[in-house]
Fold this sequence. Notes:
This protein has 173 residues and is mainly alpha-helical. It has helices at residues 12-37, 42-65, 74-106, 129-154, 160-168, and strands spanning 112-116, 124-128. α1 (12-37) runs antiparallel to α2, α2 runs antiparallel to α3 and α3 (74-106) packs antiparallel against α4. The two termini are 31 Å apart. Keywords: Membrane, Transmembrane, Transmembrane helix.
Amino acid sequence: MLVKKKSTLFNFKDLIVYFLIAGTGAAVQFVAGSFFRNYVDFFTSVSLGYIVSFVVGFVLTKMFAFDARNTNKTRREMVKFGIVACISFGITVGFAALTLKILHSSDPNDYIYKIPYGIIPEKYKDVNVTEASSTLVGMGLSFVSNYILHKTFTFKSTGFYDRAKAALHLGRD
Length: 173
């Protein structure tokens, strides 16, 4: 007789693995966003960093975080991952913007930290600590919502995809 193992929302092993995977995605998002910040405004850089990390996040999360490597439901998981990503995008950008607004309301000055780089010691990269802190707040809140939504929706059979597919008359999975 097979006994189905009860899954809890905050399973320690899943949480640790997800933290490592999401940390990798967050690092990609932060580095990409920092790169784009050299060329575009703050909100666009946060958005572009999030988009770049989306692909990395899906692959790593499917492969390692929730034991969904061999489910043969990649299309359905990708659609659900995209839905969660849209929610998470709103949380990331929304809370980064809200945090920046709160920080600017208490002190309108941005704190800039100069990091030396290159061979010439006089070369510095300006890091806007105020914007970076705001981005990290948005990313942190997104992390929590992503874990819960991926665990309970993306990589779990909920019937949502089948109902959506029937409603939209999509092709086979």
